[in-house]
Amino acid sequence: MDSGTRAMVDAVEEARRQLRENALPTSKEGWRARVPPAEERVMLGALADLVEVTAELATALSDRMTTIESPHFYKGAGSRLGDQARYLREAEQKVARRLG
Fold first, then answer.
1. Which domain of life is it from (predicted)?
2. Which of 53, 55, 50, 47 lies closest to 80 in space, CA to CA?
3. What is the pLDDT of residues 50-99, one digit of tens each?
């Protein structure tokens, strides 16, 4: 694996590790109180940021793939992830409007 590809894989794996070790366990703790609306908006924004950058990465990688089908898969994933990021942004904006 060339150093550029390795750096991308390492960055994605580090993000996954951080989410699994830090964010996911905290989100599953049943004893915690509900998330306050202002923090809910911030969390929606953070999730939207994460999905947006993942969509950008998938789309950018589509131009670098060499097998016949891979560019299509990466572009499709980038498009679908972009849709989900927009969904999260809309939810973030709705919560922000509700908060005034």
1. Bacteria
2. 55
3. 999 999 999 999 988 889 999 999 999 999 999 999 999 999 999 999 99
